[in-house]
Amino acid sequence: MSSLIQPEIFFSALPPAEQRIQKALEDIRQGKPVLVMDDFDRENEADLIVAAETLTVDTMARMIRDGSGIVCLCLTDELANHLELPPMVTDNSSHFKTAFTVTIEAAEGVTTGVSAKDRTTTVKAAIKDGAVASDLNRPGHVFPLRAREGGVLTRRGHTEGTIDLARLAGLKPAGVLCELTNPDGTMASGIQVLSYAQTHHLTVITIEEIVQYRLQHNL
């Protein structure tokens, strides 16, 4: 089935945006992933997103299995600086200026670092209360991303959307994301995202809806 579908047709199959945002925030609090789509004229893809604080090994395994395998930890600039995570490159020439830092691994409690359990351990080491730079080895198998201050009101990216959702859910401002893929390895978009969400009972929201929710509620 083609993934091409008009936005108004796609969203007509879903509950109202406000209702879905509220459901997404409750899911985030419970450690359940949500699907966040970016603008149809941007990447037109969906990311599986979960708060770092409520991340479980099972959810990490799902993200690795059903996603691209590039699991990213979204952090505030403040925490990334505190953990001494420099940019991955000095000259970021990527199309959307995605702010990757050097990759990380937990300094303790992991083996090769690549398993779902090890990657979860790495995430928890980075966001725990009192975490310091020496709690992490570099390089590793988790890809930190620096979010822009101001969230989606500043940059309409999944990185900022992830931080905003964690904050709005009342959790630490850190989250984990991975791009959703199809079984054949292609990127999921449009109706493929909706089909996956329905199969796995996941909430679908968009970056634009997070923007509007924040503006409407002065958040």
TrEMBL record:
D-ribulose 5-phosphate binds at residues 42-43, 47, 155-159. It catalyses: D-ribulose 5-phosphate = (2S)-2-hydroxy-3-oxobutyl phosphate + formate + H(+). Pathway: Cofactor biosynthesis; riboflavin biosynthesis; 2-hydroxy-3-oxobutyl phosphate from D-ribulose 5-phosphate: step 1/1. The record marks 141, 179 as: Essential for catalytic activity. One of its GO terms (biological process) is riboflavin biosynthetic process. It comes from the Bacteria. Binds 2 divalent metal cations per subunit. Magnesium or manganese. Mg(2+) 1 binds at residue 43. Keywords: Lyase, Magnesium, Manganese, Metal-binding, Riboflavin biosynthesis. The keyword Mitochondrion does not apply. Mg(2+) 2 binds at residues 43, 158. Its EC number is 4.1.99.12. One of its GO terms (cellular component) is cytosol. The keyword Magnesium applies. GO terms for molecular function: 3,4-dihydroxy-2-butanone-4-phosphate synthase activity; magnesium ion binding; manganese ion binding. Signal peptide: none annotated. InterPro entries: DHBP_synth_RibB-like_a/b_dom (IPR017945), DHBP_synthase_RibB (IPR000422). Its cofactor is Mg(2+); Mn(2+). It holds the Pfam family DHBP_synthase. Belongs to the DHBP synthase family. Homodimer. Catalyzes the conversion of D-ribulose 5-phosphate to formate and 3,4-dihydroxy-2-butanone 4-phosphate. PANTHER family: 3,4-DIHYDROXY-2-BUTANONE 4-PHOSPHATE SYNTHASE (PTHR21327:SF38), GTP CYCLOHYDROLASE II-RELATED (PTHR21327). This is 3,4-dihydroxy-2-butanone 4-phosphate synthase. It comes from Acinetobacter sp. A1-4-2.
